[in-house]
Amino acid sequence: MASLVLGSSQQTNKGGLSLFTLSDHEILNQIYTTHVHDDEKFDVESLFIIVENILKRATVVVDNIVLGTQATVEHLEEKIPKASFSPPICTLKNISCEMQCKAPGEEIAHKTALSILSKLSNYSWDAKAVLTLAAFALDYGEFWLLAQIQSSDQLAKSVGTLKRVPILLKRPTLQKHKQALVELNNVIKATLEVIECIFELEKLSNHDIKDVPALSTGMEHIPVDVYWAIVTVVASTTQLCCLINDEEKKPELSPFSQKLNIIVTKLKRQITIIRQQIEETEAYWKLVKVFRTPTEIMEVFKGLIYTKDSVQPLIDGSTKKPVNIDVLKKKNVLLFISSLDITEEDISILRPIHETIKKEDQYKIVWIPIVELWTEELQKKFEILRSKMPWYVVQYYSPIAGIRFIKEKWHFKGKPTVVVLNHQGKVECENAIHMIRVWGIKAYPFTSTVEETLSTSREWIGSIGTGVHPSVENWIKDQKYIFFYGGKDNEWIQQFTRRATALTNDPVIKEARISIELLCVGKGTKGEDHVGILGRFWTGIESLFISKTQRKTETDAVSLEIQKLLSYKNESGWAVLSKGSTVVLSGHGTTILKVLEDLDKWKELVREKGFEVIFREYHNKVLHTAHICCRIDIPNTSGKIPENMKCPDCPRIMQTYISFKCCHVDGTANGLH
């Protein structure tokens, strides 16, 4: 057996090592050498029931005798072990014998605990703890039972004399050792509580660790917790022997009591987390089943939000008053799901939707805030956000029942999402936020079918452009050519503006009656204004991209054009040329500027081939002489991330990289590139 040199607590200051300075790792190294395997089977639960019955009553008796309290044991629950249970009496006596008449000291207690663990090497960890406590309960329970009845029973009096009961019960002796007896009683209660928690953890361990990851943390600490329970029982036995023998030198139990209280707090916290994860798992599989064959929106909504029978009213944003969830009955529902880190723009894009759909009263919007742990500060933040919303709001200050389902099945990662459910509770669109951002009410009724139709249209730039600048709508109506452009480099933007202006004013272009408008989207800097023109433009492009990629469809020309444009987001310059709302082409700053610089080489062909055709042809010619890598950044909070992606400039599959970004403001997250 491995050995460890320890010093007593009195020796610690003289350079000895205290038991309480050992790390969990050092203790594990010691106790794992004593554990073989769990093949010794017996009814641990019944033994623990008996031990609880003994110690909970014995500690009440001690409090009454030592502290003079008048507590009774009638209120204590009498648990019943199985009728067939046969206590392992020889094992218990063997353990008891191992603990008896030891000298005080941490090193001795440690060696005794290791010896007991070796004797119980074939038992499970919880069984080791229960057996050791049961061996102690035999002596402790017997001693205080005799103390109770010796005055009225001659046999008890005689046995008590052998057990030295009268010596400890003498008033002077009792007073002298009062504090030590109280300490002993308290440490016994703490030990019992630790083992109760370990037992509870073992009961919970029959759940799948994949569904309940907190089990892993809880279970891996059980061997160390069992060790502390056993070494404390050993020290308690020594304390009892010292008291019975009226000895002056006794173990110091307060450090053991403090250690056990820390363990109890940790175990209870872990058990709470595990139970919460079990509830989440049960709710998850219940929702999976419900969504396979949904029949009514109300039942789906209840299962998604509320745990068990804790159904609470919604808040009507228009009146700020609570309403029964019956308002959703037989309605189509847009679930606006988000964290509390949402912007005014996130809310504002839904306002026109709400104003339109409330007229027919067939669709309802409900905000579901996702908060893992509510605090007073977060509740205040919730109230501020809630006051800005005219639709229904879930006011539920605990984690919602369907949080795992929302994360796993609807790919929620913190950013706002809108899940569309029909009146039966069937999902019509897993995330309509992107089509709402791009097309607004035109996307009504916000189903995947509508999204498919809209996202295949070549007129996608029109929806984004009109949201960026009010003049774009008229340019589109007049079927004008429009250059949308921007980039990271101000010098490039100035060069492009100068060259594009020269193009629009060129006599050949004017003669061909080609009307071209310029719209500078802006320059991206470290302090990007995401609520300005630049932010709205790229938010629209990213929404289009995600809208396309979150469905399993073949890559089409529109998808490639959007991907190509998105790849230019962090470049020094880029431009998109459209005719009305139809995209002609998008280009990297280097290639598109080269086309404008070479205007004299191709402008004469405008009369023959047309502006649109010749511009595209010359750009393709320039493109073949350039070698520009294509890079697309996709925020990791966007929902589904495509497994692979075809390059928009060539037929190859793009490589995947992981990168992390921080802008030193709240709400940023890592990205996948």
From TrEMBL:
Signal peptide: none annotated. Residues 23-294 form the Sieve element occlusion N-terminal domain. One of its GO terms (biological process) is phloem development. Transmembrane segments: none annotated. Residues 466-664 form the Sieve element occlusion C-terminal domain. This is Protein SIEVE ELEMENT OCCLUSION B-like. The lineage of its organism: Eukaryota, Viridiplantae, Streptophyta, Embryophyta, Tracheophyta.
